[in-house]
Specification:
The chain is of the alpha+beta class. The protein is built from 17 helices and 22 strands. Strands 6, 7, 16, 17, 18, 19, 20 and 21 form an 8-stranded mixed β-sheet that branches. The chain has a 5-stranded parallel β-sheet with strand order 9-2-1-15-22, covered by helices on one side. A 3-stranded antiparallel β-sheet has the order 10-13-14, with no helix packed on it. The longest helix has 23 residues. The chain binds flavin-adenine dinucleotide. Flavin-adenine dinucleotide binds next to helix 1 and helix 17.
C-alpha cells in the first residue's frame, strides 16, 4: 500500500512525535503523514503556525510574523507531499512593486519585477546603473543555481556531506571566500543600491558584513520566483496546513508543552509533557530550536551545547511594532525599507557589538496595499521591524531601552516622510525579544533561527539529523537550510525524507 505522498507500507503504524507546530514541524508532519506514518504534533501554544502568528484587534488584522513569501514552489511541494494541491487551499497574490526604498537624503526608489520600470527606477538614483545592476542579477542567479544544486537539493548538513553529494563544479561556483557586502561593493557603484542589495540578508536575519557572498543568491530568489502575499492574510498558511493534517488524521495537540525527551541506548523514546504524562514514539522531530532543545529537553551535554552555541548561535531578534492608524500613508508600498544613514554601522552594532543600533534600517509593511481587508477603510495597518540583537547573558536590556528604540524608530519614519504617524495611531502593539522568546522559546528571541556567518559556520546551520540520538531530528530555522518560511518548510520536508528512508 502506498500513502498519498508516495510512501510505502513499511513503517506504517510507527509513530512520529513532532514537538512544535511552527512551519518546520507542520511541513515534517505533512511529509510523514503523506507517506502513511502516524503523527502526533505537540504545540505549547493554543494554535498552529509558531512565528507565523495573527493578532486581531480594533478592526485591524496584524500578521505578527511573516508578511511576504518567496519560492512558492516549496509551499507547493509541502502540499504535494501530503497528497494535496496547494491551489485548492491557498491563493498567492503577487506583491508589486517588490520593495520601496527610502533614504535619509530623500531618495526613494523601487525594486520591481518589471524590466522597463527597473530602468526608470534606477535612473532615479543616477546614470549608468542599469548595466551593473543587470550583471549583479546575473551573478545572483549563478549563485542561486550553485547553492540550489550543492546545498538545497542535496539536503547537506555539513561540508563533508556536500562534497559527497554534489558535483564539485557546483560547489566551487558558490562565492564562499568573501562576504556578501564585499561582493556587493565590488559589483555595484551606487551607495543606495549597495545598501539595498546588501539588505537582502534580512531574509535570514544576519549581517551582510559577516554572511558569505553566495547569500547574494537572495535577489535572484525574489526576481526569478516572485514575491507573494497570501489571500486572506499570511496566517491562512497555518490554517491550510492544519486542515490538511486533520484530513490526514494527524493528532494535533495544542497547549501541550514538551518538558523532556527521554532517551535510552542512543535513542529518543518519545516525549514527556509538562504535566508528567508520556507519549511513546518511534521518531522524535523537534521544531524547538536545537540550542534550547539540548539545554532543556535532552540530558545535559555541556560540550555539545557549547559547540552549538559557538557555531550556530542565534540570528537577530526584532522590535515588532504594529500600528493601526486613522489615516492612510499613500507613500508606502506593501513592502518598504527605511535605510539607516550608515548601514554598516547598523550591522556592526547588531551582529558584532550586541548593541541596540542608534539608527537601524527599518523593515516596514503596509499589507492593505495588496489586501484591503486587513484594516478599516481610510486607515492603515503598519508593521515596523528594526532588527536588534537577540538576548544573551551579556545583552539583556530593560523595557526602557526598547521604548527608547521605539521612539527613535517613529522619529525616523516621521522625519523620512510619514509626518504625524504617532498621532494617527489608534492601535499600537509592541513585542520585544522577551515576548518573542516567551511565545516561541527561540534562542534569545531570535526571529530567523541560526545566524549565517562566514567565520562561525560558513552558512551551514545545525544538523537536521541528530548526531547524538539515532531517531531524533530537528526542523526549523536553527537547522539546515535555515530561516525564513521556504527554508524552514524545506527543513521539515528533508527531515521527513530522512525518517521515511531510514530503518532506524
Ligand atoms: C516579525 C517577523 C517577521 C518575519 N517576516 C518574515 C517574512 O516576511 N518572510 C519569511 O519567509 N519569514 C519571515 N519571518 C521568519 C519566519 O517567521 C520564520 O523563519 C518561520 O516562521 C520559523 O518557523 P520555525 O518552524 O523555524 O519556528 P517557529 O515558528 O518558532 O515554531 C516553533 C514552534 O515550536 C513550539 N515549541 C517550542 N518549544 C516547544 C516545546 N518544548 N513544546 C511544545 N512546543 C514547543 C513553539 O511554540 C512554536 O510554535 C519573520 C519572523 C518574524 C518574527
Amino acid at each position: 500500500m502506498r500513502g498519498p505522498g508516495g510512501g510505502t507500507a513499511d513503517g506504517e503504524n510507527r509513530r512520529a512525535i513532532v514537538i512544535g507546530a511552527g512551519l518546520g514541524g507542520l511541513a515534517a508532519a505533512c511529509a510523514l503523514a503523506g507517506a502513511g506514518r502516524r503523527v502526533t504534533v505537540c504545540e505549547k501554544n493554543d494554535r498552529p503556525g509558531g512565528k507565523l502568528n495573527l493578532l486581531e484587534t480594533g478592526g485591524f488584522s496584524f500578521d505578527m510574523g511573516p508578511s511576504i513569501l518567496t519560492l512558492p514552489k516549496i509551499f507547493d511541494e509541502v502540499f504535494r507531499r501530503a497528497g494535496r494541491t496547494r491551489r485548492d487551499y491557498l491563493k498567492f497574490v503577487p506583491v508589486i512593486p517588490h520593495w520601496r526604498n527610502f533614504f535619509e537624503d530623500g531618495t526613494v526608489f523601487d525594486l520591481t519585477p518589471d524590466p522597463k520600470e527597473t530602468v526608470r527606477q534606477l535612473d532615479r538614483l543616477g546614470p549608468g546603473l542599469t548595466e551593473p545592476f543587470r550583471r549583479f542579477l546575473d551573478y545572483s542567479k549563478r549563485q542561486y543555481d550553485a547553492v540550489n544544486a550543492a546545498y538545497f537539493e542535496t539536503a547537506a548538513d555539513n561540508a563533508f556531506q556536500m562534497l559527497r553529494r554534489a558535483p564539485l563544479r557546483q560547489i566551487l561556483r558558490q562565492d564562499f571566500l568573501r562576504t556578501m557586502d564585499a561582493a556587493v561593493r565590488r559589483r555595484l557603484p551606487h551607495p543606495h543600491l549597495r545598501d539595498t542589495m546588501a539588505f537582502f540578508i534580512k531574509y535570514v536575519g544576519s549581517s551582510a558584513l559577516r554572511a558569505p557572498a553566495f547569500m547574494n543568491m537572495l535577489p535572484n530568489v525574489q526576481y526569478e520566483f516572485g514575491l507573494w502575499y497570501v489571500e486572506g492574510g499570511m496566517y491562512a498558511i497555518a490554517r491550510a496546513l492544519e486542515k490538511v493534517l486533520k484530513e490526514l488524521g494527524v493528532e494535533l495537540r495544542y497547549g501541550c508543552r514538551v518538558a523532556k525527551i527521554p532517551v535510552r541506548g542512543g535513542r529518543a523514546e518519545g516525549v514527556i509533557l509538562e504535566d508528567g504524562s508520556r507519549i511513546e514514539g518511534d521518531w522524535v522531530v523537534s521544531n524547538m530550536e536545537t540550542i534550547p532543545a539540548h539545554r532543556e529537553l535532552l540530558p545535559p551535554d555541556p560540550r555539545y551545547l557549547r559547540r552549538l552555541n559557538r557555531k550556530f548561535g542565534p540570528a537577530c531578534s526584532g522590535l515588532v511594532i504594529h500600528l493601526g492608524t486613522d489615516r492612510v500613508y499613500p507613500q508606502l508600498a506593501h513592502h518598504n525599507f527605511f535605510f539607516s544613514a550608515d548601514q554598516r554601522e547598523h550591522f556592526r552594532s547588531v551582529f558584532e557589538e550586541g548593541r541596540i543600533p542608534d539608527d537601524p534600517t527599518l523593515y516596514v509593511v503596509a499589507p492593505s496595499r495588496t489586501d484591503p481587508s486587513v484594516c478599516p477603510e481610510g486607515s492603515d495597518n503598519i508593521k515596523i521591524l528594526p532588527h536588534i540583537p537577540p538576548l544573551s547573558e551579556e545583552h539583556n536590556p530593560g523595557e526602557e531601552a526598547y521604548l527608547e528604540l521605539k521612539d527613535r524608530v517613529l522619529d525616523k519614519m516621521e522625519r523620512m516622510g510619514l509626518a504625524g504617524l504617532r498621532k494617527s495611531a489608534v492601535v499600537e502593539h509592541v513585542w520585544t525579544p522577551k515576548d518573542i522568546l516567551a511565545n516561541y522559546l527561540s534562542t534569545g528571541g531570535s526571529i530567523y533561527g541560526a545566524v549565517t556567518d562566514i567565520r562561525k559556520n560558513s552558512g551551514f546551520k545545525a544538523p537536521k539529523v541528530s548526531p547524538r540520538y539515532r531517531n531524533l531530528y530537528f526542523v526549523g530555522g536553527s537547522v539546515n537550510p535555515g530561516g525564513g518560511m521556504p527554508m524552514v518548510l524545506m527543513s521539515g520536508l528533508r527531515a521527513g525524507d530522512a525518517i521515511i528512508n531510514s530503518r532506524r
